[in-house]
Every structure is written in C-alpha cells, then in structure tokens.
Amino acid sequence: MTVGAARLVQVAALADVPLGWVLKVRVGSRELAVAHNEDGIYVMDNSCTHAGGPVGDTRLKEGCFVECPWHNSVFDVRTGAVVRGPARKELKAYDVTVQDGKIFVSLPD
User: What are phi and psi of 71, to 5 degrees?
Assistant: First the structure.
C-alpha cells in the first residue's frame, strides 16, 4: 500500500507486542523497534544514534522509554527524543497505523 511518497508496511501483529514491551522487527534491510504502551503503538529505528546499539527486544522503562544496553542512552518511544545521553541525536520515529489487529508503519520509498 502506498501513501504519497511513503508506503504502508505491516511490521507485526498487535498480539506479538505485549503491553510494556519493545519488539525488534526487520523490514527489508531496515531494523525497527515496535513499542506498546498504555497510549498505543510506536515505531522507531532499532539502532541507537550514539554507537548503533539495539533498543528493541526489551521492556519499556517508566512506560515510555527505551534504554540502549551498550552505553545507557535513553529515548522516548513516543517521539524518538533523547532523554539521557550520551546519544545526542533522536531516533527516527515513524507514523503508525493499527488496523484489524495488524501494525503498519509508513516507510519512505
């Protein structure tokens, strides 16, 4: 499915991402982190902007944060913003649609 200059791609089933967790998924050559909190589903790049460590396959901290296990940078899953360094650049966050129990993300072509 294509929307403007982006395409909607199914990345997971809602049932695959338990509340309070972040799931790592691969879409083509891209690794994404899919987070599920009380407010909904959020998708961002799975590579920490400091040194490339993974932020997926973990529990959320305080309901909306992920922490890179390599150097402890913390990001807000709702926006990708850096909450604590050493990372200085935010994670790329993607537009998400949940429909019929499936999670779709809008990826650039």
Answer: -135, 10
Q: State how many domains the chain has.
A: 1
Q: What is the pLDDT of residues 11-48, one digit of tens each?
A: 999 999 999 999 999 998 999 999 999 999 999 999 99
| Boundaries of domain holding 41 | 2-108
Which SS3 state, helix, strand or coil, does residue 35 take?
Answer: strand
Q: DSSP for 52-96?
A: --B--SEEPBTTTEEE-TTT--EEETTT--EEESS--SPPPEE-E
Contact 8, 97 (CB under 8 A): yes
Total residue length of the chain: 109
CATH of the domain at 74: 2.102.10.10
- Report the distance separating Cα 97 and Cα 7, nearest Å: 12
User: pTM for the full model?
Assistant: 0.92
Contact call for residues 61 and 67 (beta carbons, < 8 A): yes
